[in-house]
Request: fold
Amino acid sequence: MTNTSTFTSPTTATGTSPAFRRSPGSAPEGQPEPPLLRRHPHLVRYSDVEADFHALIDKAIAAIADGEPVEDEILGRYVNIASMVRAVSFREGKLLELAFERLSKVNPDLTVLIQSLKLPLVKAAVEAVTGNDWRHLDGIRLDCEAPAKGSYTPDLILVNRARHVAFLLDLKRSLASYGDTTRLEELKLKMLASAMILPDWLYKHHKRMMVDSVGVAIIDGASRPSDHAAGVWALSEIDDLLEVDGAAACMAELRCRFGRRVQTLLEAEARRALGIVDAPISASFPHISRFRLRQPVRRPTLDITGVSPLRQECDIHVVDESGDEPGAEAAEAEDDVLPAVRIRVGFARRLLDA
Reply:
């Protein structure tokens, strides 16, 4: 165990100014953003990532439609709809992760780790966070190979190589289901304990990558009011994490388009469950869903690529059931470079106010 630096108290954020919240089409294509509206050195518009995002949405919708629910006596003919809703929760979480990774490529200083992220919950780190106010602790970097009990797998680890800052990120499609439970505090405890060993873990397992500050952020995909002092960020604020203007607007448009496709799919399944004859399938993208139980007559589905005229909302509310997917850690080559000696750990804030 090495005493390195002090934990620093994050500044309470007030959110992004409305002047900098732009819709995806706020500026004409090909016309540079006015300098006064630029906050960061990098810029992305939805047209820059539209093809990639469209492919991600197609993949997520196909996975939702291809589910095979188990017959349920309680849900009866509505079991297909319930299974689809559960699938939406998981697939939206994965969609946000992959979209976040794609947007991070706009900033060449960023590295996003998305696989093999199983971090050990070192006992000393858990005890330090549990028994103390971390803001008053001396900054401690712990050995990632010290005795541990359990593990935590973040959705993403974002590393800004130019600033030597790392962020442990947990993306949630919505924090609404966490309001009256202790799950959110338990998640923060695991993230803070993992942050204490992250510098050593990055150094040993990712090509001697060195950081001297670690931020923790739980990102709420529904963009409800954030609380940076408590480690909660709205999805609408990710421009400041990525240092890319327009990233939040791109994510908002992605969720809107995904929501329309999901609603169309659910509407088609609801019609089928109620015995309502569906409209003819569009020839542009025929897709036969396997998301059904044994039925004597198979009715055609609605075209899942279209937008339902009855459903135009961009948000749908589903219970969050996304989970972590642990992976195997990769072995890396060794060299003689020494790790950083000053480590700051805390809830993520804009550039950690360095």
